[in-house]
Structures are given as C-alpha cells and as structure tokens.
C-alpha cells in the first residue's frame, strides 16, 4: 500500500508478462477507491533507462487521479530478464510494448477497453509507433519524445558520433562471431564515446538513478547504427487517437524542431511546449508542470468514472 502524501491510498504490486522468450517485470498500480475498473496507462522509459528512474513519481500521480498504471522494464534491462544484458533492440522494445498492451487488456481489475500509452524520451517515440500499430488504444502521451534519428544524430558532437559508430561496428563484428557485446556508454561528458554527450546529460540523466540502485550506464553498441535510421515521427503523423506531445524547447537529446514538425501534421495531436531541457521535466517545477498538463489531458479524453 502506498500513501501519495495527500491521503490517497493506492496499491502497487509486482507483476510480470512474457515478451518473446523472456519475462518483463512490471509494477501494477491500482487506485484503492475505484468503484469500477479504471482506465490503465501502460508506461515505460527511454534510452537505456529503467522504471526506477522516476517513473514511480508519474505513476503515483496518475493513480491518485484515478487511473491504473502498468510500469514495465524492457527485456535485457532493469528487473526484466533477457540475455545478453543491456541489449537495446528497437524491434524487441516495440514487441515489449505490444506484449505489455496485451497483458494490460487481460487484467480483470482494469478497463481493458481504455488503454493509454505513456512513454518518455526514446520511449516517447516508441508509444507513437506502438499506438499506430495497435490501432485501438484510447490515447497516447509522448514526453520529450525522440521523433527523428537524423535530427538527434546531427545534434551529437561529430567526434562523439564517429567514436560511437566505430564502437557499433565492433559490436556487430562481435555479434557475428558470437563474442560478448562491445558496450558504449549511455551518458557521457562532451567529447566522450557515449550515445548522449550534451553538457546537460550527465548532470540530468544519472541523478535520476536512485541511490544504491545497480544501474549500468552502457548498452550494446550496435544500437548506434539503428538510432540514426529510426524516425517515430512518421507514426505520430498517422495516429488516430487523441495524443498529447510534451516537448522541451531546450532539448539537447531529442531536438524539438522535428517533434513540432511531425506534431503539426496531425489534428489529433495536442502539443505542449516547455521552457525546459530534456531532463528537467522529471523533477521540480518542470515535473509539476508536465504532470498537471498530462492529467488534464487524460481527464478530457479518457475520463474515470
């Protein structure tokens, strides 16, 4: 049982579902005073991140507003199974989203006809693709979303991009010869060999990890060849359900220009922009602004009883 600090009690249980040949670990949040099965929000994080990195803060606020939440870790990450560890496969993560949606719909304690997708950063791009593929979700919320691989790649420092490409090619060679993956850092200082090297990355991304949590700041480097070709914004243009896009004007990881372009091409999309950096909306005033807007959106398009 959880007390959200304002007297609202909610239950959180550890659950799991199968995706591919592995179990995905998840938290299921349920509001204690729901008179009927509530809508359920399926949630997951961004690039190499896990649910322990502040997703509980969002889920607790959604549950206090009357929604159930299913918060999961991708295969190969966090508390989920999958070998090798830290393998970031876009295809597999999208399959994880499909499996999570199917699991949510199988639950008797939620309204299976009202499923919402919520993703942030790289996961913000995933929910666009997953929502379009599913075709029956009630709404999508994409927070500081990755919408354009080319735009994010161009935002990288050229030296870091070259280093990552070299590491990625070495990892592909290791995969072909069945050797252990060659790793690359997720967050690094400017000029380093990492997928994210903007000045606000290390002070913004790594503090999201709780003290003492065994987080690995690295992934199999092969994903460095996939990211530049991945363009979830194309799916955003085609989403038919109500969609909220929360974009940060100071985003150094997922440039806002591409996000605004794709969002403006779909009348089903509501775009909210914040004078914040990519990592600022997980904490403090940025968090309060974005969670308030997201709950208002949900109450408008997927109302609780």
- Which architecture of the domain at 13-150 and 231-299 would the CATH scheme give at its second level? 3-Layer(aba) Sandwich
Listing every helix as H and every strand as E from the N terminus to the C terminus, the arrangement reads EEEEHEHEHEHHEEHEHEHEH
Structural class: alpha/beta
Report the portion of residues in β strands. Answer: 15-25%
CATH class of the domain at 13-150 and 231-299: Alpha Beta
Write down the CATH topology of the domain at 13-150 and 231-299: Rossmann fold
User: How far is it from the N-terminal to the C-terminal residue, by CA?
Assistant: 22 Å
Question: Which oligomerization state do the chains in this entry correspond to?
Answer: single chain
Sheet with the most strands, sense and barrel status: 9 strands, mixed
Secondary structure: number of strands: 12
> CATH-wise, what's the superfamily of the domain at 13-150 and 231-299?
Alpha/Beta hydrolase fold, catalytic domain
Main-sheet strand order equals 1-2-3-5-4-6-7-11-12
Mean pLDDT: 95
Number of helices: 9
Shape: globular
Pfam family, one: Hydrolase_4
Keywords: Hydrolase
InterPro entries: AB_hydrolase_fold (IPR029058), FrsA_esterase (IPR050261), Hydrolase_4 (IPR022742)
GO molecular function: carboxylic ester hydrolase activity
Textual characterization of the structure:
With 305 residues, this protein is of the alpha/beta class. It has a domain at 13-150 and 231-299: Alpha/Beta hydrolase fold, catalytic domain (Rossmann fold, 3-Layer(aba) Sandwich), CATH 3.40.50. It contains nine helices and twelve strands. It has helices spanning 55-64, 90-105, 122-134, 149-155, 158-176, 201-205, 233-236, 256-263, 284-301; strands spanning 2-3, 9-19, 22-31, 40-44, 68-72, 115-120, 139-143, 183-187, 194-196, 218-220, 243-250, 269-277. The strands form two sheets. It has a nine-stranded mixed sheet with strand order 1-2-3-5-4-6-7-11-12, with helices on both faces. A three-stranded mixed sheet has the order 9-8-10. Helix 3 (122-134) links the parallel strand 6 and strand 7. Helix 2 packs across helix 3 (122-134). The longest helix is centred in the middle third of the chain and has 19 residues, at 158-176. The radius of gyration is 18 Å and the shape is globular. The chain starts with a strand and ends with a helix. Mean pLDDT is 95; it is low at 3-8. One of its GO terms (molecular function) is carboxylic ester hydrolase activity. Pfam families: Hydrolase_4. Keywords: Hydrolase.
